[in-house]
Structure formats: C-alpha cells, structure tokens
Sequence to fold (318 residues):
Amino acid sequence: MFDEKDLILEAKHVTRRFPAAKGKVLTACNDVNLKFYKGKTLGLVGESGCGKSTFMRFLVSLDKPSEGEIIYRGQDITKLKGEKLRQNRQNIQMVFQDPATSFNPKMKIRDVICEPLLNFKRIKPSEKKEKAKELLEMVELPGEFEDRFMHNMSGGQRQRVAIARALALEPEIIVMDEATSALDVSVQKTIIELITKLQREKGITIGFICHDLGLIQSFAHQVAVMYLGNIVEVMPGEDIGENCRHPYSKALLASVFDIKMDFTKKIESIDSEIPSPLDMPPGCPFCDRCDQCMEICKQEHPVLKEIAPGHEVACHLY
Ligand code: SF4
Fold:
C-alpha cells in the first residue's frame, strides 16, 4: 500500500514503563511498531490516557522509551545525545494543543516564530521581521501580525502561528498533538485544510494524535488505533468505516457524532470504564469491555496480524 522506499521513520518494539506506588509498573506503551512514510499522515487515535501522546513524545525526543528503537535516517534517535540530539530536533517538530500555554505570552509573534531559526543560527536577528512575515503568509495570516502578541489572536490564528513556528526549520516530520481539539469545528476544518495543503506543497510527514476517529478519517493516509498502550489496529485511512475490524475501533467509530445520525436510536458507546493500566488483564487488553470476548481472549495477548495489504489487527477473531 505504501512504498517502502518512502519509509522515513520507524518505531520498533517501543515500550515505556513508569514505576508506580507499591512496586507496581504502569506500561504506557507496549511493544509499539509503527511506520511513517514521506508526505503521508499517520493518525494515532484512542481515548484520553491511552498512551498516544507518550508515544509521539519519543519522536520529538521529549522522552525516551524503556525499550525499543526509533529509526530515522538510519539511526536510532532514542540513543542520540548532546549536539547530535539538538541538531536532530530540526528534523522533527511538534505542534501542541494549546499554543497560548506553549509560548511565552510576553513574546511578540515574530519572536515566537523565529526563535527556533535563531537558536540554530539559520537567520540573523535583523532578518526576524521579514522572515516572520513570510512564515505568517505561508499559514495564510497577514504578515503584519508579526507585531502582535498571542493574546491578541483567536484560537485558530494562534494554532496557525504554532504551525508556522513548527515549519520554520523546514522539518521532514511534524507531530501534532490534539492540535485542533480545542478549536471550533469550523476552525478545525480550516486548520486541517491548511496542513494538508502544506503537506502537498512541502512533502511533510505528519503524525496526528487525535481522539476523534471521524476527524482523522477525513485526511489521514494511515490510521493506528491505540488502546491502553497497545496498537490494536493499523489500517489505510480509507478503510475506516466499512472496513475497520477490531471491536474497539468499531466501538470508537459507532460513538462518533454525525449530523445525519438518527437521534431516535440509542447512541452507541463502549460499556464499562477503561480498566486501570496498573491492573491490566492478562490476555487481550480490551477483553473486559468487548462483547465478543472468548475464552482465549482472557488467556492470550493478541498480536497484530495482516488481514489485507496495509491492514493489521490484533484480535483473536482474525
Ligand atoms: Fe474482543 Fe477477543 Fe478481539 Fe479482544 S481479542 S477484541 S476480547 S474478540
């Protein structure tokens, strides 16, 4: 489905454990294997606290896994230190959910956008104003906004500034962590249109974390569904809907609100609470909530199996 020569970054057997009280261990990511391809978007979906942000933080070297490798340009970036680690940050940038809290409110927009360029000595301080204007126009904002502060802008405009800053260093990959979740639906749409346009123009690879399968369906080339730190399904973007197979993916999809839905019918939701990651069932992590759970599901942890080109499912039904 994707050409392996376009493989740009690969997570191999990535696991992250955190020590918890009473000698327990919390496994936030469990043996995660994912591939990112040039110019494509991989959407990572799942409920809050499922480990998606923990995983994406490894890509931008904000944390290191307990085990596993993240291979980018032939090297394991989890092993990078010092200047090599610093230099690598230029290649993979991140956009957070709320730019208002990610940046110093006393900085003007030109300083926010140009800070990474100055840190890597890509521009001189005297070039800041012009460069900020150019980058603002790239994200379809007026160049004069370079003289504003974040608090003088709307949520959508702030997120455009965050995208301009992330793209200032011309990274190959950007990771967007719930970057549209705090925005109105109409603004969300314009931001998605902007990033897909920039992706087409610049060939950027995007890792997009989201809890909304409906939103991710509209633009991701590849979607991975995460449940309690485990990847339970990976599929081509166009397969969400009719072709998703894992009971958890189906339940997520059934709970998506749609303007055309029949509100006289019961809205589907997943019964019962998500179990504590400190008290994981020994077999399938979803077995306590799955209405198709079988005896084997309680004993054996299902592993990802390919059921169609580019489509893998971790479920004993397949
Ligand atoms: Fe349900 Fe069993 Fe599949 Fe887990 S492995 S999702 S419990 S059917």
The chain has two domains: 4-87+173-178+200-313, 92-170. Residues 92-170 form one domain.
